[in-house]
Every structure is written in structure tokens, then in C-alpha cells.
Amino acid sequence: MLTYIQQRIGAETGVKPGAEMLVAIEEAEKHQKPVAFIDRDIRITLGRFWGRMGIWEKIKLIGALIYSLVSVEGQDLDVDELTNQDVVSAAMEEFRKFSPHGAQALIDERDAYLAHQILMLGNRYDRVLAVVGAGHIQGVQRYLNAPETLPPLPSLTADVKGLPWGKIIGAAVTIIFLLLIAAIAFSGVGLEVLIAALAYWILINGVLSAVFTLLAGGHPFSAATAFAVSWLTSLNPLLAAGWFAAIVEAKIRKPTTGELRQIIEAETFSEMRRIPLFRVVLVAALANVGSSLGTVAYFVFIFPVLGIDPTVVITEGFSNMIRMIAGFF
Known about the structure:
Structural class: mainly alpha
Number of strands: 0
Order of helices and strands: HHHHHHHHHHHHHHHH
Distance between the termini: 58 Å
Number of domains: 2
Number of helices: 16
Shape: elongated
């Protein structure tokens, strides 16, 4: 998504992403000067970027990226305005407000990393010409003027391990569901209600996951796979219905690595959606969304659908359960 948005902005402005770096390399080669690539590895940057952000920042980011997929097209973008330092500074500050932790990884840490590399090159060469993005000029210059403020280099490349919110939420869902089923079983409302509660879990999760798979343009077999596994994957924080649906989709559509270029060059979202590789990714994402919505819908509507009083079921169920457990001791 980031690559696609970058390519679309480049198409609108007539400037290919990374063109300034290519020109710098060409000029260096023309004058027979050595070239050093001093930015941090993109895998480290994205890993720290994702790891630093909280769950709310991640949700906002995904929403903003999806919006950007359709909003970039057709905008009148002025490349001179985009590279104006005042505009760049305002954009950086806006991003800090939007995602403070993300800005640390994408901007501040890279400023420090670039400054480290420039200073190390300065110890080897008499003169160093550094070509950096407009958004990094002020930050890098600030560190070069005061090297003592630089954070240690190893701290800029270490893995960031945030709270595994996906596993935490998944484990919570599993515990709540099992406790709910146990409460129904011990409450005395009857075997029919217990069977209905289990059946609704399978149906609600399965139907919504399958519907969202079809909305992604997935094959009916992929939708059937999502339906079949979503009730189970919703109870296991280590599994996701979208993974299984995407595997089936990939087996049927057979995407190729060359389609990555087609995704980048696509003009519209609907055009991207017709590309098998993008469709596989979309199936994985939307099948998981459907399964998650199914889980939420189940807990919200299960008691009204079953026609039972949740207070009675929970109090009676747990009381009977505790008495039964106490009877073993």
C-alpha cells in the first residue's frame, strides 16, 4: 500500500520515487566519487515502526492508508510545494500528532541513524556530500551540530517488542467464549440452548468470514474455506481464517511475482482488485475482518437471539459450576 501510494504521487507530480537518489548516484559515478548507502535497512525501519505503535495508532494508520488509495488519484500536486521546507515541516508535525510512536521510528530514529553514518564517513573522507529526503534535513543537521545528543547506534537497530495485542485479544476471546459456554451448560437452561449457542458461533463467524471473502473477489472455494475454519480460528490467537482462505485463493488464482509491478502501476483500486496477487492479500485481510466482526456480533447478540437472560445464565451457571468443583474436594 505504501509503495502504491508513493508511485501514484510520483505519477501525479511527474517525479519517480527515489529519482533524487538515482541522480546523486549518477553524478557521483560521473565524477568517480565513491557512493555509500547510509539509510537504515527498510526491514528494520518497518519492524520498529510497527512495533512502536499502539493498537489505536495501527488502526488509524490502516484506515489512512486505505483512504489514501483512492484519494491520491486526481489531486493536483505541485512538486515544488511538496518539497518546500515549510510544507515539509508542517507535514512532519502533522504526522507526529497522528502517530507519535510511528514518527519516532520513521523520522527521528532515521535522522539519528543518518547522522551516525555521515559522521563515520566524515572520519574516513575529507568531504562528504549527503543526499537525504526533505523531511530529514532539519533533524540530521541538528544531530550533526550536536553529535553528543545522538542516541547509541545499536539502540536504533534493535528489535522492538511491543505487547502482542493480537494474541492477548485472541486469548481473551477464547476464555470468554469457553466461560460463556460453561455458564450456559451449568445454568440449567437446557441442552437445546447449549447446542444453539454452539451452532450460532459456527454460523455467525463462518457466514461473515465467507461474505467478506466474496466481497474481496475471492473464489467460492476460498469463501467455503473461510466458513469452515473461522469458528475455530476465532478461538485460537495463533491462527487466522484469512490465512487459510488466502492459501486456497492462491492455489486457484496462482499469482506470480511479476504481478507486484502490476499492482504498483495500477491506476485504480478496482484495477488492483483484478490482479490475482493483490486479490490473495485482500482475501486474507477481509476474511479476517469478517471473522472478527462475527466474533463481536456473537457476543453482542447471542443472548437476545437465544431468548435467555444473561444475568440469570451467568450467575446460575457459575454458582452451579463452583458447587460442582467444590464437591470434588
